[in-house]
Amino acid sequence: MDPAIKPATRTFEDATPLLAAPEELRREAEKKGYLFFKHFFTREEVIELRGQMLNVLQEEGLLDPAAPLLDGIGNQPLIDGMTVEELNWNGIGTTQQVYHKIQKLESFHAVAHHPKLLGLFDTLFGERTFPHPRNIARIMLPSDKLNVTPPHQDFLHIQGSYKTWTCWAPVGDVPKALGGLSVLEGSHDTGLLGVTANPGAGGLESILCGLGYEWAETDYEAGDILIFHSLTVHKALANTIPGRVRLSLDLRFQPASQPIENASLLPHGPFEWDELYEGWTREELQYYWKKEQFTFLPFNEEIRWQKDKIC
């Protein structure tokens, strides 16, 4: 059976004990291509951000006014009236207007600079970490019109350094039924895979036939994080809980000495940093990359369509 549709046979193991054993942590990361940390952030930290993000949806009328804010229950009549184009804009699960307000949240961008998170990646990389400013939020409204994110490798979209890792963090409890993230354990060892077009986020689906790897996943709780290599194949599960919004973050990190592609320093979306920064209080979160001495690599469109690697 194609691993793209084969059900998961592995459950994540908590890598928290490895934080005290750097060499073991790096060996496990090299072996699996990902690490999972249970309750890495405090629940209170995550719920505070969740409230701010859901407040944006509430202001736009996208939440059920009769339900508690933190439950994240969608205003289904309004959502059902939205077009496929509105819901699938830029692969983030909601409209450009909503996403613009999310991108303006200082607290959203501050997560990538959390000292504990930077310390984790310093340990993994064995050197100083650079957090990409191009942070992504997924605000997946409850709708059958939404395209589920297909199996893919982040490197095709990020490029720059292969040593870039993603941190996927649920903003609230995300059981598998709500559409959490699943990873193909060990798939980073395959190198770049061939792709085919897919209407989900990113527009590309990795071709997985014959790889023989196994999917791994879990029921996430607020504060959990999953980190994975830029070549590790991963996908979103379908949201099968009626009415519930799913919130999550995609944050990316690399060794500071590694090359980078210029778009990783731009906002995610057709926005400008000066405008997004309006009202921020923490200057250290703004334009911090300008003091770096990067080697820039151009984006290579050709590697996104490697026909010779299609099985």
TrEMBL record:
It holds the Pfam family PhyH. One of its GO terms (molecular function) is dioxygenase activity. Transmembrane segments: none annotated. InterPro entries: Phytyl_CoA_dOase-like. Gene3D superfamilies: q2cbj1_9rhob like domain (2.60.120.620). Keywords: Dioxygenase, Oxidoreductase. PANTHER family: EXPRESSED PROTEIN, PHYTANOYL-COA HYDROXYLASE. This is Phytanoyl-CoA dioxygenase family protein. It comes from Paenibacillus lignilyticus.
